[in-house]
Design a protein that fits this description.
It is globular, with a radius of gyration of 19 Å. The chain starts with a helix and ends with a helix. The chain has helices spanning 3-23, 25-35, 53-80, 90-121, 127-138, 140-143, 147-176, 182-199, 201-212, 224-240, 244-269. With 270 residues, the chain is mainly α.
């Protein structure tokens, strides 16, 4: 990847991340409280809907920038000039690139997500106080609580979203005979995001439970199958898909803004 391409991916990814995270933050708060073990209203209901927004604001740019730099760099190495250059292997390239992108991005995303979600579930506390409390009680390891479950949620999500997004863009571009406009790439992103969001909701429920669990509890250990079994046992299929409507709405609209903004900024900088 050339220096210009690197900077373009960095800036376009970071701008896209900030656009989507700050625009759709209230929906994310509602989803977190719906998935909380204490229930929606005890977790704050509709009060303090912007609780935790400083954490999201700080983490969104570097998180999205890290993802897209890794994603585009991997695509460049494996696809255009690499071992997976054949057109029929493009989905494999996109899957590997997206998976690596998520693993790198989660190093930034998880600490901000932990602080953000705990603040969302305790609106009487501030982001700064929640950060200090987490460091005091659990140390730096507490900020990475749920790293494994987040990666295991994000990789399946990206395995669905990004190959589907790239395929839809290619298909639409081929049918109309020229490169897509930014808004068309955004529509493809919205559809791909909605499909991926619905399929991976149970993993998102598990991740939320693990991040919000009290230190030392069974749930806090991060055993995803056990957490999913407990949710199934106590709340059935509705528990596994708790928050699916705001999640699908959030990610569908988010996919439109995120991938549309990315394409727009990328096109502008080229």
């Amino acid at each position: 990847m050339e220096r210009r391409e690197f900077v373009t991916s960095l800036v376009a990814g970071g701008c896209a991340g900030m656009c989507v995270d700050l625009t759709l933050f209230p929906l994310d708060t509602i989803k977190t409280r719906l998935q909380s073990q204490q229930g929606f209203y005890k977790a704050g209901g509709f009060r303090g809907i912007y609780a935790g927004v400083p954490s999201a604001a700080v983490g969104s740019f570097p998180n999205a920038a890290a993802f897209f730099v890794t994603y585009d760099c991997t695509k460049s190495l494996l696809g255009a000039r690499g071992v997976l250059a054949a057109p029929h292997l493009a989905p494999v390239t996109h899957m590997l690139a997206a998976s690596l992108g998520e693993i790198v991005a989660c190093l930034i995303r998880v600490p901000t997500e932990v602080v953000k979600q705990r603040t969302q579930a305790s609106p009487s506390s501030s982001t700064y106080r929640m950060l200090l409390a987490t460091l005091r009680e659990e140390g730096v390891r507490g900020l990475y609580r749920g790293y494994g479950s987040t990666v295991l949620r994000e990789i399946p999500f990206s395995l669905v979203q990004f190959p589907l997004w790239e395929y839809l863009k290619t298909l639409w571009s081929w049918r109309q005979g020229h490169t897509l406009y930014s808004w068309q790439a955004a529509v493809c992103g919205a559809f791909a995001g909605a499909v991926a969001a619905l399929v991976t909701t149970p993993l998102d429920v598990a991740k939320t439970r693990i991040m919000l669990a009290k230190a030392g509890s069974t749930t806090a250990n991060g055993n995803i199958p056990l957490v999913l079994y407990d949710v199934w046992k106590s709340r059935g299929i509705t528990g596994l898909f708790a928050g699916s409507i705001p999640r699908v709405t959030f990610i569908s609209v988010g996919g439109f803004i995120f991938l549309g903004a990315y394409e727009k900024v990328r096109t502008t900088l080229r």
